[in-house]
Each structure stands twice: as structure tokens, then as C-alpha cells.
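Final report, results section. Input specification for complex C-07:
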Amino acid sequence: MNIEERLSKVFATVFDNDSIEITPELTADDVDEWDSLSHINLMIAIELEFGIEFDQSEIQNFANVGELMASIEEKLAKKN
Amino acid sequence: MPLSSLHFIFVFLPVFLLLYYVLPKSGWRIGLLAFGSLVFFGWADPGNLPVLLFSLLFNYIFGRVISQRLEAKGRPAARPFMWIAVAANLLILVFYKYTGFLLENLADLINQPIEYTSKALPLGVSFFTFTGISYILDLYNSAEKAEKNLLRFGAYFAMFPKLLQGPITRFGQVKNGLINPRPTTDEVMEGARRFIGGLAKKILLADQLGLAINKVFASNVGNLGVGVAWFALVGYALQIYLDFSGYTDMAIGLGKMLGFKLPENFNFPYISRSVSDFWRRWHMSLTSWFRTYLFIPLEFARKREKFLRQQSNLVIVFLLTGLWHGADWNFIIWGTYFGLIMAIESGRWGKLLKKLPLPVQHLYSFLLVMLGWVFFRIPDIELWGPFLKSLIGFNGWATNLSMRQFNILQFVPILILGVFFSLPVASRLEQKVNEKGGVARILLDIVYLVLFVLSIASILANGYSAFIYAQF
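Structure output:
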């Protein structure tokens, strides 16, 4: 499974919604269930899924899913 | 010195502003702001000036050490200093605010009296210690770099508009202004209007409502008719909003007049559609503080726990939010009550709630927030039951403690005005006037002048009364 597919699974679990399509342009405004609390759940689920850790300052600063994916890729690359 | 006192409005502020606008160099203005803020504090609470000074210097020095260590050796080297600084801020707060409460409960527990004379709470201690913690943690999280210039740091930390009652301001929110604070004429005008609007909200509405409802709450609250009980509760909800948001308007207005953009603290809390929504709109700088420095770190620290992790964190954080308001059980219960509701709203109920008709959502939120104010307003827990019985009509519509006895009809116009200024209508009107300019603007400015004169007349007639949040 590539990063996008794994991320897609995380989104489906956190938001309890299989129909969310992951695109780089997707933002919290596009997903009804994506509020400040579920955002934290999302970040935690991503940390656990990929075995990475976000900085405090990063958590609230991703502009869209594209930036989030770039950060995940970068952290995975550093790990290996 | 409260912002609504005559000393502040007619002595401190004019002298300060005159000097501030005359000084040509930004460094001098910053120095004046730092020094003037200490004078402001010392004027009102000279005995505790050393506490503020210690706090200021301590956070300045530890901030610099943390930043240096972070740069040179990384986070682990900075960590002990971060903990010491956070603990020191908390210790000041706990020592002055909670020692009496802790000892009192300890005495109950061990069934032996403990001698303790409570210390005078330094003005604004809950606010400036939280400012210190936010500064330290923002440095530690690399969100900001430590301020090297002590005067600039002092101007940020002790800035008099926000020193006593917030908004709790993060360093990043004003650091650009600290480099060269130079307000434009328009900003000074806007700031002055906001200041006067806040003053009028406090003096002409909140204090007047207070006169009416304090009498009701001082009476036998278990023997009120439905009308009087609800008048008192809604009156209190309006009073505390107008009082605190009035203060905030004055603080933000003053900030603007000095060239700073302080964060907003309220976004019309009484139009909220859920309790979570209410807390996104009420005392926003405090909820944002708790979210950033406590809730999110707690969530990540417990990330491997699956069972009710988020729910329990909400309860913990709101329990502490309640406790921040005062060392008393009623505040702890008030906070925990909201934490529990928000924990429930974070699940299916929250989703369902959003699908209900709008009036139902508003009513739901209104009733739960009002119930919260019962816990907040009445410190004696044994009186909650009797007052709630009055609210739901156990004593019928009227008792011998009648509307007439409390002169309630006289206060109904103020209640209506209070409702009007708690809704977004008034500020939308002001926006429209700003867009139009011209005669409309001049007319509205005349209204502001009249409000100012009326407020001053009222202070002269009644004396000023303290802001509710000044005691927290």
C-alpha cells in the first residue's frame, strides 16, 4: 500500500466515512466531520499508522492534505 | 487601577498617551510602555509590584536561556529550564490563589483546623502567569525566538491594557508591533471608539444589570417566582458577558491606540449552537491557551490509549479551566460540567445535534449555558437546588418576592439593550457605517461622545465597581 492509500484508510476510520477522496487540495473545510477535535484524532492516527511524530507547531499548520503528505514522506525518508 | 476608573481615564491615560505620541523614537515609546505599565500596576497594587517584577525578569531570563540552549544543543538541553520556568509561574499562581483553598480542604480531610491568613491576590496574577507560561512554551516549541531587549519584553509582558484581565496574548501576536509601534490616526480613532463602546457596555449596561440581579441573588433564592428567577439568571448571563467583553473592548481599543493588535476574546457566545460552539466563542484567549498548552499535549501524550482518551482529556482540561476562575468547588463543578457535556458532544450526539433544526440547537445551547451560570453565580452549592426549583416553577409564577419588590420593570429596557449588544447586529451596523463614511460616521461618533459622557456621569454618581473577571 502506498502512502496515499494508507492515508485514505486513516481518514475513513477517523471520520467514519469511506467516501472521502484524498487529494492534495483537500482541506478541513471540505469535510463536514473535520473539526478541531477530530483533527487531533487524525494527527494521532497518522502518527500511529506511520510510526512518525509531528512537532507541536506542525499540527495546526498544515494548509491542506498535500502539505500533510509531503511532511509524512519527509519524516518517513528521515526514519529510513 | 481598573480601566473604568476616573484616575485611569482622566489622569493616567491622557498623560501616558501624550508622552507616547510625542516621543519620536520607537525605543523610547517601548520603554515608556514598559515603565508606564509598571506604574499602572504599582498605582493599584503597590504591595505586589515585586511579584510582577520577579515574574517579568524570571520569564525574560529563562526565555533567553531556553532559546540559547535550543539553538546550541537541542530540545533535551532546554527541557529542564522549560520545566523550571513553567513550574515557577504555576507556583506563583498556586501560592497566591489556591493555598487557602487547599489548606481548607486539607483541614476538613484531617479534621483539624489549620491556621492560615490568606494573602492578597496580586492583580492579574491569573493572567500574567499564563502569559509567562505561553511565552516559555512558545520558545520551547520553537514557535518563537526569545526577546533579547528587556524593555521590549517588559512592554509585552506587562502591557497595561491587557495586564489585569487579558486577553491572554501570545508573544507572536504582538512582536511585530513591538519593533516600531506607530498607530495611524485611523487606528487611534478606531481604538478610542472601541474603548468608549466597552466602557459604556460595562458602566451603562453591566453595572446597571448588576444592581438589579444582585438583590435577587441576595434574597431567598428558593422562594422566587419563575419570572424573577429567569430575569435574574438571564440578567446575570448578560451582565457577565457585557462586563468582560466590555473590558476586552477597552483593552483591545487601548492596544489599537498604542499600535498593537491584541487578540479577540469573544465572538457573540450567546448565538452558539452547542456547548462546544459556546466555548469557541467565550473567553477565546483562555480556551486557546488551554487547547494549545494543555489539551493537545495531553492528547498526544496519551495517544496509545483508546478508551475515552479524548473525552477524559476534555473533562480534565475543563475542570482546570473552571479551577482557573477561582479556588472554589463551584468553579470546579462548573468547569467539569462543561467538560462532560463537551465529551458527550464529541461523539454521536454532536453529529446528531448538527442535524436538528437551528432553533433547537440554540435552545439546547442556551439552556445548558444558563444552567452553567447558576453554578458560577451561586458559590453556596446548597442553594443550587432551591434556585433551580424556582426556575422551573415550583413556586409558581410569582411569590411575595415579586417583580415589584426588586423594581424589575425599571431594568427591562437595560435587559433588552443588553440582549441587543450581545448579538452581532450592533457591530454589523458599525461596519456598515464605516463603509459608508461621511455623515453616518460623524453621527455615530456623536453617539460615542454621548455614551462617554453618560458613562462618566454614571461613574461620578455611583462610583465605579470592579470588573467581575478582575477577581479571577
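Chain A touches chain B at residues 33, 36-37, 40-41, 43-44, 47-48, 55-57, 59 (CB under 8 Å). Chain A has one domain: 3-79. This concludes the modelling results for the funded period.
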